[in-house]
From TrEMBL:
<keyword id="KW-0732">Signal</keyword>
<dbReference type="InterPro" id="IPR025660">
    <property type="entry name" value="Pept_his_AS"/>
</dbReference>
<dbReference type="InterPro" id="IPR000668">
    <property type="entry name" value="Peptidase_C1A_C"/>
</dbReference>
<feature type="signal peptide">
    <location>
        <begin position="1"/>
        <end position="23"/>
    </location>
</feature>
<keyword id="KW-1015">Disulfide bond</keyword>
<keyword id="KW-0325">Glycoprotein</keyword>
<keyword id="KW-0788">Thiol protease</keyword>
<dbReference type="GO" id="GO:0004197">
    <property type="term" value="F:cysteine-type endopeptidase activity"/>
</dbReference>
<dbReference type="InterPro" id="IPR013128">
    <property type="entry name" value="Peptidase_C1A"/>
</dbReference>
<protein>
    <recommendedName>
        <fullName>Peptidase C1A papain C-terminal domain-containing protein</fullName>
    </recommendedName>
</protein>
<dbReference type="GO" id="GO:0006508">
    <property type="term" value="P:proteolysis"/>
</dbReference>
<dbReference type="InterPro" id="IPR038765">
    <property type="entry name" value="Papain-like_cys_pep_sf"/>
</dbReference>
<feature type="domain" description="Peptidase C1A papain C-terminal">
    <location>
        <begin position="105"/>
        <end position="340"/>
    </location>
</feature>
<keyword id="KW-0645">Protease</keyword>
<dbReference type="InterPro" id="IPR012599">
    <property type="entry name" value="Propeptide_C1A"/>
</dbReference>
<dbReference type="Pfam" id="PF00112">
    <property type="entry name" value="Peptidase_C1"/>
</dbReference>
<dbReference type="Pfam" id="PF08127">
    <property type="entry name" value="Propeptide_C1"/>
</dbReference>
Length: 359
């Protein structure tokens, strides 16, 4: 009888306990990592990290004091790492793409040169003090794919997704889920940047906005007169993940264009200047999302991924970075997401120019 009561107590206790959301992958974010008291006063850039990396015989990359983070504290740096671990239940109906191993891929690939007519691929943007990397990676990839597959040059709105997706995507400037950004494109579409421009172009310089801007209010109204919100919507056909095997990731980029990836960021990554990054020193800071645009092999024989960041050109290699490929460094190959552009709401003229129309 005592055993039965004990079992019943455990069952009731389990049912009453809050459900734990399991991360689909080991990508932390700043809110899980936590902010220590010293994080608000200690700068993210540290001489000892630069020295440790540059003296390391097998680092493969060069560290420096990137101007972009000259005035950033550790707490501020953590805040802009806005990828939250995706709840497992969200991924149950998300398809995962794989490719035939018979597909021949080049040893080096750069989407900027492959689709040189698409200037958006080479854009380096700035997310400011908002944890909106999960939005930037998605919006940038979708606009690139509109150019690649529909010959459309369009700048899409980060602000629309950031402000209007709500809890489905996460917490706006306090971080979100990359795959849900792509689902938003399917269900709601995204307007042009001209209609709803990004709110943090100045990088949060005025008093009262530290450590970050709050998430902007969703207004669903174009800032430009005579533009109608729904008429400016651009959609994605689907939202999917790409299998973590490097061949599948490379095949997806080769056939369809840049993809959004999320990975774990350590302190030393803030100091990246050039070369093929791998984690050398420092603590976990959070999860970050960027745009993966190509791959290659360094002179030293290291296979790498080529990525565009959104920390302006004052960080890294003119805004870009390379990270070692094929070893799932920092989880870079675990969470790759994308979608294909839709003709919904789009009118493409025979002459190659494009416009929008409500359908």
């Amino acid at each position: 009888m005592g055993g039965t009561l004990l079992l019943l107590f455990v069952v009731v206790l389990s049912a009453a306990a809050p459900q734990v959301v399991r991360a689909a992958k080991p990508i932390p974010n700043s809110y899980l990592v936590g902010v220590d008291e010293g994080d608000n006063s200690i700068g993210i850039l540290q001489n000892h990290i630069v020295e440790t990396v540059n003296k390391h015989p097998n680092a493969g990359w060069t560290a420096a004091h990137n101007p972009y983070f000259a005035n950033y504290t550790i707490a501020q740096f953590k805040h802009i790492l806005g990828v939250k671990p995706t709840p497992q239940n969200v991924l149950t109906d998300i398809p995962t793409k794989t490719y035939s191993r018979s597909l021949k891929l080049p040893k080096e690939f750069d989407a900027r040169s492959q689709w040189s007519q698409c200037s958006t691929i080479g854009n380096i943007l700035e997310q400011g003090h908002c944890g909106s990397c999960w939005v930037f990676g998605a919006v940038e990839c979708l606009q690139d794919r509109f150019c690649i597959h529909m010959n459309m040059s369009v700048a899409l709105s980060v602000n629309d997704l950031l402000a209007c997706c709500g809890f489905m995507c996460g917490d706006g400037c306090d971080g979100g889920y990359p795959i849900m950004a792509w689902r938003y494109f399917v269900q709601n579409g995204v307007v042009t940047d001209e209609c709803d421009p990004y709110f943090d172009q100045v990088g949060c310089k005025h008093p009262g906005c530290e450590p970050a801007y709050p998430t902007p209010v969703c207004e669903k109204k174009c800032k430009v007169q005579n533009q109608v919100w729904q008429e400016k919507k651009h959609f994605s056909v689907n939202a999917y993940r790409i299998n973590s095997n490097p061949h599948d990731i490379m095949s997806e980029i080769y056939k369809n264009g840049p993809v959004e990836v999320a990975f774990t960021v350590y302190e030393d990554f803030a100091h990246y200047k050039s070369g093929v990054y791998k984690h050398i020193t420092g603590s976990i800071m959070g999860g970050h999302a960027v745009k993966l645009i190509g791959w290659g092999t360094s002179d030293a024989g290291e296979d790498y991924w080529l990525l565009a960041n959104q920390w302006n050109r004052g960080w890294g290699d003119d805004g870009y970075f390379k990270i070692i490929r094929g070893k799932n460094e920092c989880g870079i190959e675990e969470d790759v997401v994308a979608g294909m552009p839709s003709t919904k709401n789009i009118v493409i003229n025979d002459g190659g120019s494009s416009g929008t129309a409500v359908v």
